[in-house]
User: What shape does this take?
Amino acid sequence: MIAIDENIFLWINGLAGNEAFFDWLLKGIANDYLVIVGSCLVLLVLWVWGADGRQRDRNQKAVISASLSLGLAQGFVSTLNAFYFRPRPFTELPTNLLFYQPTDSSFPSNSVAIVFAITFAILLTNRRIGGFLFILACFHAFSRVYVGVHYPFDVLTGAAGGIFIAFIATKIIKALEKWLNIVMVLAHKLYIA
Amino acid sequence: MKTIGGCLVFEYFYLVFIAAIGAIQAAVALNGLMGISFFNRKIYAYFFMFITLGPVVTAFFTWNERNPTGVIEGSEQFYLFMLAIVSAIGFTLVLSSFLKHSSLRNNNVLYDGLEALKQVTFFQALRHKIIKKK
Assistant: This one.
């Protein structure tokens, strides 16, 4: 399994350094800020988005679910990191490193888990915006391997964890709907929802 | 991962702050929430979105080129992001209420929630609610 993971890593990372444009593009997409901040800004836009009150209400519940997913995804990665440390690929294999050298565990990918958790929490409610975020998340996951900071299995586990957490968060929000509605009514009265 | 310097933190904060203001203006223009828009015409809001979000996206895209070893830790990033978003929302509510104060003064508050901000500013809506309670 590890050998397959390393071979796929070497193949994807082997593409780096051939085309300056792709290196530049994927280096930008791989960084820790662009896609995460972009996804969170989409949540902000979604909070006020809606043709009518009902649609806005649905979107706002999706935003709450996505925010919960974000927190749970961060917890999921921190918990796994506490029990298992996997060295970064550039410390073990010949790597075309296009990025700075992170020192935390390679497994699972933190940023990929967060981005996929947000994406799937939105995708369950709003397919158009969720679909856009999904494409962005896939590019981000691929770019993390391309620039040499993650193995493919790290990003796949991050993505799978993020998706699973989004489903859990949506279930939690549904279970707490009665209480959530009370909070939403209060937010309505204050003109913030 | 280590945080390098206060400048990085400040840079992250103001980039998110500016991006959030641009994103909010585009979203409120698209949804007709004129009470929290800085502008009277939607086209100005879209232009504002481009001149705010464009440079911010570029700045985040090139972050590692400008700060090759500069990393903000995950939890610190979360707090900074939340602070910037709350500041941007507060700034938007105050500035839009100030700019639209006279043009939306005579409108009635017909709805609850964000829907009300199609006709009045945030502070006009709150004032109306307080007066109605009295």
Remarks:
- The longest helix of chain B spans residues 74-100.
- The radius of gyration of chain B is 18 Å.
- Helices of chain B lie at 5-30, 42-61, 63-66, 74-100, 122-133.
